[in-house]
Amino acid sequence: MIPIGHYLFVSLALFIIGVIGVLTRRNVIIILMSIELILNAVNINLVAFSRHWANVDGQIFTLFIITDAAAEAAVGLGIIIAFFKNRETVLADEMDLLKW
Amino acid sequence: MSALLEFLKTYMWPLIFALVIVGVLPLLAGYVVLMERKVMADMQARLGPMRVGPHGLLQPIADALKLLIKEDIIPENADKLVFWFAPVISVTAAMLAYSALAIGPFFQIAELNIGLLFIVAVSSMGIFGIILGGWASNSHYSLLGALRSTAQMISYETAAGLALVGGVLLAGTLSTQKIVQAQQGGTWFVFVAPIGFFLYLVASIAETNRAPFDLPEAESELVAGYMTEYSGFRWAVYFLAEYANMIVVASIATTLFLGGWLRPFGSIAALDFLDFFPPLCFLGVAGYCFYRTPKQPEPIQSGVMALFGGLCLLLAAAMALPFVPAFAASKAGVHGAFWFLLKVSLYIYSFMWIRFTFPRFRFDQLMKLGWYFMIPLSIVNVLGLGVYKVLRQLQWSRWPAFLLTTGGTLLVAIWLVWLAQRKVAVPGPVGDMTEAEG
Amino acid sequence: MTPTQISQIAFYFFAGLAVLGAILTVTVRNVVHSAIFLITSLLATAGIFLTLGAQFVFAVQIILYVGGIMVLFIFVIMLVNLDVALHQLQFNRQGWVAGLLALVLASQLGFAIWFARGEGSLDIPAGRTGALSPQNVEQFGLALFEKYALPFEIASVLLLVALIGAVVMTKKRV
């Protein structure tokens, strides 16, 4: 049997990589993808604990998180397309209209 | 070493089945292509391929050899790695779907609890092969074809999935084995959910990018869509994936709506003589082969024809095996595979029939059909089948429940068609058509 | 090789693949390659779900995440892809702050997991899986439509809102 700690460490690694991606990349699309990585890390945790406690609730939370991710991706990508139409860029630090 | 032996002992049959499928599926796809050319020729009053082998029987092998030794061209500005990898994704997705399909009660690689869901999930990955291949070619036609294809496949996947949900609702399970078993005593689901079957038929044609929905590969508009820059072996792999996908959707429809490996009228004892059909069918084909053997123009063609006749005799013997009392147990497996493949071929034949009958759709017509007709109707269909199941649980007999639910769904379908046909007065200045459409 | 051993090998393989895919996702230059590596990572995660016996979540992960969301991502990348953007700077100048932050976060969480492991409470006990059958799709469905019926409805409303939002956002003129 694989100890649950291993699952948690995989999840931790994915989470940290996602955080680094969000903080360092300039491309908005990659930032969104890094957020997907973070959500994914949480999913691993939930499913692993669902197995650990022999309770199906964790899997259901996973389903809700995936639903959330779908909604977030749809709206986020919509915003990116609208922004690209106006400014011809997808770089996060060029979105500075409100910076003054 | 002993660990390996243990492994082989546990997983022997799944491994053998997997090897058989990986080996047979390309051959089968090649012969589906031959069948398509023959059917097309028949509908256009021609003969079709006749030269390679008697009646063109060796044409698929010749085609495959030609594609293998063709020059492999990679465009200069292509993304080499993705270009190389994209066809592999397509064909892997198509073949992986077979790991959960049951060709008979015995012939199945893995009996999964989520069988049908697994197949849908895996075959939805095939989209990536298309879109990445189109992108990696670095060509406008390829990219346009890939984007069209993706939009089309995603739209129709929803409709196909909802049509499948209807069938799954009736069966009460996702496992392919149990779905077929649920149809064993009673009727096949196509007679309970004809509208669901129709929806799946249309959606599966769109999903496999075939005419009349073959816009991603429309020659007159996009050269060859996402495959424009592909040649030789890579192109062959795409082609294989396409035909393997056809076989997969046909198998899903067979499993869910056409009773899988069950014999027609399995519950009527008076029609048990249908059990003799499989061996007699092959016997007839073998007889025809031997009858044609002396009439071939070349001696080598006569030889090949006789070989095919012998092969059919062998198959007939295999089909007759269950009538030997010692091997009676093999009946479900052997005959099951026969009926399953027969139904799959009939489904694919209907694909071809449709392809050679209807003209191609325009892209906006395609999208309109998908979003304004197929998806709403498939949702209503799921509701209707739910009502059917509840009515059956309330001890209604079969016909009133069937007529009520199917009639209701049909009324909704007619209403949807009326909505789409209705002429709407579009406000706005003349010539501003794009705005009015969107 | 027993099934347990196979599932162990499968877990470590998928775990390595997921982490590798994630690292490549945030480091490669080309956005499409990034998306491909993210798909790899998501598929490997689906494999991890399978080793945990969560078959339905496995299927949902592939159908929704890989077959839906990632196709949407690639679609948008191809709509907005700029060849210019490839030659620009891909990382911003706050790399060292991000690294520090990530290090702190990683050490915190890692310590927490390590500490809890020391108490022996985080190993899966052998008999614990009794209540959750290995094929738990039915349990999943029952819980979803009985205990979690209201959240389920709320999630569907959320999807509807997102749908309308996305349509409004990408319209030519609002």
How would you summarize what this structure contains?
The complex is a heterotrimer of chains A (100), B (438) and C (174). With 100 residues, chain A is an all-alpha fold.
Write the topology of this structure.
The complex is a heterotrimer of chains A (100), B (438) and C (174).
Chain A lengths: L3 H21 L3 H25 L4 H31 L13
Helix pairs in contact in A: 1-2, 2-3
Chain B lengths: L1 H9 L1 H32 L15 H10 L11 H17 L18 H10 L1 H11 L3 H32 L4 H7 L11 H14 L11 H4 L9 H26 L19 H16 L6 H22 L10 H25 L7 H31 L4 H24 L11 H5 L1
Chain C lengths: L2 H25 L3 H21 L3 H26 L2 H5 L7 H24 L18 H9 L3 H22 L4
Structure description:
The complex is a heterotrimer of chains A (100), B (438) and C (174). By secondary structure, chain A is mainly alpha-helical. Chain A has a domain at 27-91: Helix Hairpins. Helix content of chain A is 77%, strand content 0%. The longest helix of chain A is centred in the last third of the chain and has 31 residues, at 57-87. The N and C termini of chain A lie far apart (57 Å). Chain B has 438 residues and is mainly α. Chain B is built from 17 helices and no strands. Chain B is globular. Residues 430-438 of chain B have low confidence and may be disordered. Chain C is mainly alpha-helical and 174 residues long. Chain C has two domains: 1-86, Four Helix Bundle (Hemerythrin (Met), subunit A) (Up-down Bundle); 135-174. The longest helix of chain C is centred in the middle third of the chain and has 26 residues, at 55-80. At the A-C interface, helix 1, helix 2 and helix 3 of A face helix 1, helix 2, helix 3, helix 5 and helix 6 of C.
